[in-house]
Design a protein that fits this description.
By secondary structure, this protein is of the alpha+beta class. The protein folds into three domains: about 10-60, no CATH class; about 80-190, Jelly Rolls, CATH 2.60.120.1440; about 235-355, Serine Threonine Protein Phosphatase 5, Tetratricopeptide repeat. Helix content is about 35%, strand content about 20%. The protein is built from ten helices and twelve strands. Helix 6 (about 270-285) runs antiparallel to helix 7 and helix 9 runs antiparallel to helix 10. It is elongated and about 70 Å long.
């Protein structure tokens, strides 16, 4: 194959001048037959046009000055996405019909989305410089490169992974964080009280029977004893924890503390220990009552707790005792923590709280 002259612009300037192009266009407008270009000029012109088209098609979109993502065509991303979106880094976002996806952040370090409703599939090109995250109310999904789907409904958020790894975080996620790999999925349910119940039609009140007048003299009658109305079922610790979460979210920590204390007092309930631990944190961090916090942490340690929370409860109890001015007890509690967790996460903070340095 013969090589094109280099540079092409030198050939074009030697063979095609502005006057000739003008005469050709004027001939077309007047209906005259077009004059044929010399063969070398036609070949060079076609080759130059083909090279220009290939260069434009293969050139990557010009990156934004701040390193943010753009569409595959180079346009800035819209704030709301409701249809398939091809991105400049090769990633792809596919919202399902009726879904609404909002762009929260887009720069050289991170891109963040808010899934307001519905479901969307994310195909994230691995190895990119940005971290991706999807906010979905009950959970946040963090990812670097993978294919996954997030579905948000009123009663739950579901995350399923097709390829790669994602990290799901949230208050209602088990242990507050869960790592999902290919083929795994996770459903995060909303609190029962957060889902509005379907209103029931009011039942018509029963008409009281009208007794006919009794003949004189009226015989004494004995009223039939009315059966007592059954008491509503008692709430378990899980239900009380949900109500406490709602009370805290509404800005009523005292009401939340009352509900948590009820839950912590339920001996034998598997969630009573978690309720006591949560009560201790609330009393110490929000209500500023270290004596009550210490009692709650002691109660949590006497009940069933996951190993990670048990270590946290021991450390928080030392802090509560120190804040309450009970230095000797704080040192004793610190010794117990250090004996159980010599390489624990809170060794230094426990020593500092107990005055051990």
């Amino acid at each position: 194959m013969s090589e094109l002259p280099d540079p092409i612009s030198d050939v074009l300037e030697d063979t095609v001048d502005e006057a000739r192009v003008h005469r050709l266009w004027r001939g077309i407008e007047q209906g005259r037959p077009r004059r044929r270009w010399p063969a070398p000029v036609a070949v060079v012109g076609l080759a130059a046009a083909a090279a220009l088209v290939l260069w434009i098609a293969s050139r990557p979109p010009t990156p934004a000055p701040d390193g943010s993502l753009a569409t595959a065509g180079g346009a800035p991303l819209a704030s709301v996405v409701e249809q398939t979106l091809e991105l400049s880094d090769g990633s792809r976002v596919v919202p399902e019909p009726g879904a609404r996806l909002e762009l929260l952040r887009n720069d050289g370090r991170a891109v963040s989305w808010l899934l307001v409703r519905g479901a969307a599939r994310f195909e994230v090109t691995p190895g990119g410089p940005r971290t991706w995250s999807v906010e979905a109310g009950l959970a946040t999904v963090e990812v670097v490169g993978t294919v996954f789907t997030v579905s948000r409904r009123e009663e739950a958020v579901e995350v399923s992974v097709e390829r790669g790894v994602v990290l799901v975080r949230g208050d209602r996620v088990p242990d507050r964080a869960r790592r999902l790999t290919a083929g795994q999925s996770l459903r995060v349910d909303a609190p029962l009280a957060a889902v509005a119940p379907t209103p029931r039609a009011a039942e018509p009140a029963e008409a009281e029977p009208v007794e006919p007048p009794l003949p004189e003299p009226v015989a004494p009658t004995v009223a039939e004893p009315t059966s007592p109305r059954p008491a509503p079922p008692a709430l378990d610790a899980a239900a009380l924890l949900e109500q406490a979460d709602l009370a805290r979210g509404a800005g009523h920590p005292e009401e939340a503390a009352r509900l948590l204390a009820r839950a912590a007092a339920l001996d034998g309930d598997p969630d009573a220990g978690l309720a006591a631990f949560t009560l201790g944190r609330l009393e110490l961090d929000q209500l500023g009552r270290p004596d009550r916090a210490e009692a709650a942490f002691a109660r949590a340690l006497a009940l069933r707790l996951p190993p990670r929370l048990r270590e946290d409860a021991m450390a928080r109890r030392v802090d509560a005792l120190a804040r309450a001015g009970r230095a000797a007890e704080a040192r004793t509690a610190a010794d117990a923590y250090l004996a159980a967790h010599p390489n624990g996460r809170h060794v230094q903070s426990v020593r500092d709280a107990a005055g051990g340095g």
